[in-house]
Amino acid sequence: MRRLPVAARRSSGMPVLPDYAGVVLELTDRIPPGRALAYGRVAAIAAELGWPGGPRQVGAVMSAYGSSTCWWRVVRADGRAPRCHDEEALTHYLAEGTPLRNRRPVVVDMVAAAPGPLLAPDDPLRRIARGPDARADVGAP
Predict the structure, then answer these.
(1) Which runs of consecutive H residues, i.e. helices, occur in 1-140?
(2) CA pair distance 49, 71, nearest whole angstrom
(3) Which entry of 28, 65, 113, 119 is 20 to 30 Å from 3 by CA?
(4) What is the pLDDT of residue 27?
(5) Strand, coil or helix: what is 62?
(6) For the residues 61-89, what does the mean pLDDT come to?
(7) What is d(CA 131, CA 23) in angstroms, rounded to the nearest whole number?
(8) What pLDDT sits at residue 19?
């Protein structure tokens, strides 16, 4: 796991990011090649882990720190690539075989590109990323 909430990173000597940013980037790292999630879905998963926020907060994280991860896998709810990065994103999408609805403008097919679950029931992130609003039933069947 590259990114952890502050308490875990402080003890590991890793650079300290804001907790929410660390969780968002960790979730982004887990999106498999050829798949994509909307900003809002990343925010919803982070909220289930106890880190509330919305699509705009995820967008702010991606704007500030996204270059360190597979930023092209986080898109708008309608499948459009991040603004001003559509050509670079298209290169990644074609290389990874990401299902597209359109190439110009670049639009990911959100149904076909949906990944499976990003977190296994015994995932360490479930234990580590327990924010102040964590739900007790995260990952429950």
Answers:
(1) 6-12, 19-29, 39-48, 55-65, 86-96, 124-128
(2) 21
(3) 113
(4) 95
(5) helix
(6) 94
(7) 10
(8) 84
